[in-house]
Write a structure and sequence with these properties.
This protein has 3 helices and 8 strands; from the N terminus they run αβββββββαβα. It has 161 residues and is an alpha+beta fold. It has a 5-stranded antiparallel β-sheet, sandwiched between helices. A hairpin with a 6-residue loop joins strand 2 and strand 3. The longest helix is centred in the N-terminal third of the chain and has 16 residues. The chain is globular, with a radius of gyration of 15 Å. The model has no long low-confidence stretch (mean pLDDT 96). It binds nickel (II) ion (NI).
């Protein structure tokens, strides 16, 4: 396991579309392990492979609740319901937070790390996380869909007490 470098801000890879995973081999499993470790290291709720420079359709999510780490390979959102306006951030845009509109409920189909088909429905924060991470796989970043006037930049200095 290893911490990988997170691609940030204007890195053009963040705007690229990721490709499907064809075989879940040892290399993919190592990548997933590293993504989880990297997400935890930086206290993220989710991470897409593109954020560590790999254009593959893989996301990991951890809301630090009883669901544990969720690994979604080749995720496809099959259903969305409702809307929520939520505060959001992204490990690729450190210190930036803003309000975005997300579906209130999302159903996603994917493969897990063992290559088994899974179907997951999330509400609230989980729906937000799934939508945010799947956006990454399509080269979309939250900063492009924020509600005007809601961007907050939290500098390390302003966090000091
Ligand atoms: Ni993100």
């Amino acid at each position: 396991m290893a911490i990988r470098t997170i691609r940030e801000e204007d890195d053009e890879i963040l705007r690229k579309k990721s490709r499907e995973v064809e075989v879940i081999d040892e290399k993919i499993k190592t990548l997933v392990d590293d993504m989880v470790e990297t997400m935890h290291k930086f206290d993220g709720l989710g991470l897409a492979a593109v954020q560590v420079g790999v254009l593959k359709r893989i996301v990991v999510i951890d809301l630090y609740d009883d669901k544990g780490v969720i690994v979604l390979i080749n995720p496809v959102i099959t259903k969305e319901k409702g809307k929520q306006i939520v505060e959001e951030g992204c490990l690729s845009f450190p210190n930036k937070f803003a309000k975005v509109e997300r579906p209130e409920q999302v159903t996603v189909e994917a493969l897990n790390i063992n290559g088994e088909k899974i179907k997951l429905t999330g509400k609230g924060l989980l729906a937000q996380a799934i939508a945010h991470e799947v956006d990454h796989l399509n080269g979309e970043v939250f900063i492009d869909k924020i509600m005007p006037g809601t961007l907050e930049i939290v500098t390390p200095e302003s966090q000091e007490k």
